[in-house]
């Protein structure tokens, strides 16, 4: 409404799962359930947004304090001292080890190199202490990507490189999650519960989110 949207019907719609009714979120009840526990959000900006939304919901009860180990905004930790509950976010949009051909390209316009059988140490080595780990990734697999296994180039997505097999984004998506789950299951001290947050489709039309795309739909599909 702040930016001049003329309709308000969208404010009356809510997401509803098939076959059940979700009760209104109760922040006090949630914090009691997770008292003494910890939760990690691992993935891309959608994962980070989910954590930020949860912080907003819980703010009706308590504001957390920043207990991050680093000033890097991609690796934040928040603690609710009254409940001894910690939330953390780990930025890893592809989950696996990634190199970018043009790191200075705006909004990651270079070709990514994904090593589908290797994970990034900046998250897999940090999650053993968490009671809940939520994995979320998807949108970044639509970029130009070279796929590697055993240090060898096995294919590419959207690259159109001569003599290189053209693979779909789903190939890399499946392999990346498979590598991530196998690594988590192999952690000796991890006793938590792992959740997969399924892929959220883009809802922008006439361009991507930062290139003039808009969301003018007034009703759900």
TrEMBL record:
GO molecular function terms noted in the UniProt entry: O-acetyltransferase activity
Annotated Trichome birefringence-like C-terminal domain residues: 22-221
One GO CC term on file: Golgi apparatus
Residue ranges the record marks as coiled coil: none
Superkingdom of origin: Eukaryota
Family to which this protein belongs: Belongs to the PC-esterase family. TBL subfamily.
Protein name as catalogued: Protein YLS7-like
Organism: Tripterygium wilfordii (Thunder God vine)
């Amino acid at each position: 409404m702040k930016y001049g949207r003329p309709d308000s019907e969208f404010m009356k719609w809510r997401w509803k799962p098939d076959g059940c009714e979700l009760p209104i979120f109760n922040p006090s009840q949630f914090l009691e359930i997770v008292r003494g526990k910890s939760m990690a959000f691992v993935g891309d900006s959608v994962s980070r947004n989910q954590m930020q939304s949860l912080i907003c919901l819980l703010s009706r009860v308590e504001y957390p304090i920043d207990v991050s180990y680093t000033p890097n905004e991609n690796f934040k930790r928040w603690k609710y001292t009254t409940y001894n509950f910690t939330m953390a976010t780990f930025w890893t949009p592809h989950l696996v080890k990634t190199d970018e051909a043009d790191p200075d390209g705006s909004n990651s316009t270079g070709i990514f190199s994904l090593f589908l059988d290797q994970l990034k140490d900046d998250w897999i080595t940090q999650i053993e202490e968490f009671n809940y780990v939520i994995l979320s990734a998807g949108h970044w697999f639509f970029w130009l990507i070279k796929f590697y296994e055993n240090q060898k180039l096995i294919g590419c997505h959207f690259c159109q490189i001569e003599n290189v097999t053209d693979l779909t984004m789903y190939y890399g998506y499946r392999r990346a999650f498979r590598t991530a789950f196998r690594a988590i299951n192999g952690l000796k001290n991890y006793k938590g519960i792992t959740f997969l947050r399924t892929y959220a489709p883009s809802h922008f039309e006439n361009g991507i989110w930062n290139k003039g795309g808009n969301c003018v739909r007034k009703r759900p599909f």
